[in-house]
Design a protein that fits this description.
The protein has two domains: 82 residues; 68 residues, Lysozyme. It is 65% helix and 2% strand. The protein contains eight helices and two strands, in the order ααααααββαα. A hairpin with a 2-residue loop joins strand 1 and strand 2.
Length: 179
């Protein structure tokens, strides 16, 4: 009295409900890969479509896979949009120090020291033409961008930092000056 042991794990996996948007996206991406595999299989084995014995089943399976893939593609697009908006909200809500560390990675301590010296970690700091966390001038803001958000200011400064050779020469404050 065994209940098809090969299908039991698959059934349990299908019944598992995703609790986060990221889990739902991962599940939908995996399902889309499976349907793409099914479609590719039948496209590469066209003789099955010509077979009187298999044609009806193959056509039905192919139509079902194409339909499900189209539906999953819409769902995946919507999930990615929602996740992107969620991540943007989270990044916008970050403190200046967290935003700098998120953007600068291994240069976090140096970048925070420079931003502290330049602006005391204040996104609205201004000194003549120099604005923001890293007190970037008007030409640098034009080249690398600027906005009120700490993350955007950190990203602009990081781009400037990378293009200048990963040194702090563009800034009057150097990592050793602060704190």
């Amino acid at each position: 009295m065994q209940d098809k042991p090969a299908t039991a794990p698959r059934k349990a996996e299908q019944e598992r409900r995703a609790t986060t948007l990221d889990d739902r996206l991962d599940q939908n991406l995996a399902a889309a890969r499976r349907y793409r595999g099914t479609i590719a299989f039948f496209k590469n084995h066209r003789w099955l479509l010509g077979s009187d014995e298999h044609r009806v089943d193959v056509e039905a399976a192919l139509r079902r896979a194409e339909y499900r893939l189209a539906e999953l593609t819409k769902t995946i697009r919507a999930l990615r949009t929602t996740i992107h908006k969620r991540d943007a909200r989270q990044r916008a809500a970050m403190s200046p120090k967290a935003a700098i560390c998120d953007v600068f990675g291994r240069y976090c301590r140096q970048a925070v020291a420079v931003a502290w010296c330049e602006s005391r970690l204040t996104t609205t700091a201004q000194n003549g033409q120099y604005l923001g966390l890293f007190q970037m001038g008007s030409s640098e803001r034009r080249l690398f961008g600027h906005s009120p958000a700490a993350t955007d200011q950190a990203e602009a400064a990081h781009t400037y930092f990378v293009r200048s050779g990963r040194d702090w020469s563009p800034w009057s404050c150097k990592p050793g000056y602060a704190m």
